[in-house]
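We emphasize that the prediction below concerns an isolated chain of 250 residues; any contacts that depend on oligomerization or on bound cofactors are therefore not represented. The input was used exactly as deposited, without trimming of termini.
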Amino acid sequence: ATRGGSATDRGSGGVTPADGPRLRLAPPVIALFLIFAATAGLALWQASNHLTPTIFSDEAEMTQMSRSIAATGHPTLRGLPPPGQTPLAAYLGAPLWWIDDVPTAYGLLKALGAILMATVVFPAYGLARLAVRPGLALFAAAGAGISPALAYAPILVKEPTAYPASTLALYLVARWAAKPTARGLLLAAAGCGLGAVAKEQLVVLFPILGLSALAVIWRGNRMFAFRRTWTTGDWIGAATLTVGAVLLAG
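Result of the prediction step, given as a C-alpha cell string:
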C-alpha cells in the first residue's frame, strides 16, 4: 500500500492538491493593487460628496452627447453634430443613460470616472519601473493616483479617461524606445491613438512617438557606423539642421 499509494492517489494520477501549481503574486503586484484600491476608494468617496455639476457647460455637453449616443447611436449637441471630436468618455458613459432614473445614472457616471481615473496607477508604475526599482515605482504610482488631477474624477469631462490613457501611451512609447520591436511600436501607436480619442489635444502623443523613433534610429547600429565617418563639419551641419527643425516646428 505504501509503494502503490492509496486508491485516491492512484485515481488522481498520484498528484495530491499540494503538488498542483500555485498562483503567487509578487509583493509589488499586491502593493500596486492595494494602491489602486485606495486611490479608487478616495475617488469614489469624493464622488459621493460631489452632488452637482462643477464645470456646468462642459458637463452639459458631455451629457448631451452621451445621451444622444445611448438613444440613437450617434453623438449630437442640441440635435446637431458636435463641432469637434466626440471624446471617448461620451461613448463609455452612454450605456449608463439607459437607466431611466437620472440621479442614479449620474451617480454611476461619477463612480465610473473615479474608477477609470484610478487605473492611472498601473501605467504609472510600469513607466517608473523602466528607470527605478519596484519600491520607488510604487511611490510614483501612488503619486500619480493622488495627484490634484484626481479632482476631475467625479466630473463629467474628458480628463477621467484622458489621464490614464495618456499615461498608458507614454509608458508604451518609453518601453518601445527602451527595447524596440515591431510589436512594441504597434502597441505604442495604438496607445497614442487611444489618448487622442480620449482628448483631442493628446494628438501631441504622436510627435512624441516620432521623436522617440528618431532616438531609436539614432542609437541603431547602422546610424552608429554612419556617424563614425562624420567630420567636424558634418556634426556642425547636423546640429544646425536640428536647431532649424526645432524652430520650424515651434
